[in-house]
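Quick check before the chapter quiz. The format below is the same one you will see on the exam, so make sure you can read both the input and the output lines.
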Amino acid sequence: MSSQKPRFSKKKRLAVFAVITIIGVSFAYYNSQVNSGYHNAKMWNFDSYQNGTVPKEFAGLSTDQQSSWIIKSDSSAVSKPNVLEKISTNGTDDYHLQIIPDSPSIDTENVTMKFKIVSGESAKSAGMILRFIDQKHYFVLMADSAQNRLSLCKNTPEFLICNYDKPVTIAPGEWHTMEALVSSQGIAGYLDGQLIIRANDHNYLSGADGMWTKKDTVAFFDDFKIEY
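Here is the expected output.
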């Protein structure tokens, strides 16, 4: 009686085992980050500022020459009454950055924020700045409601490079939750509680956090929280 050949060779079995192991370790890593707990937390809900003002500490940390990030009272605010609004300007800058005051420059953190893309003619994109070193070196987790995608992009002195893109539904005019788990192993990006992007990128290993918009995008931000 002839013997049956094994369905997989030893080499193939080892390859399958290696892939399963990598996936398991990766999942365990990100899961452990979620459940590990953090010792410190900072929250900015913008409710202690007066409507229509530009807080001094925020004005000094904006990349725009004119004030385009202002406090706005809005009935839809996640934590009432205020949001931080990025208004549309006549400037020619492609990207607008607002760094969070006293943002810790660290390599391991959990960052969350609420955002709503309101309008935009040339772009409808808003995001979260991570590992900010300076205006030429940072990451941005970007939500694009015109293209319905979430991207993790790295800004360099020459280009904004988006190596990680995933299709998602980002409804303009609605609040969404963005979250990033950041460590020396990489960055995991979540939208509305769903893990969308997992990137093993080891560039810019520490830096500050903030908010970001593209071109003439008008967007609201609320409840920006950093756990570390």
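If your answer matched, good. The two ends are 65 Å apart (CA to CA).
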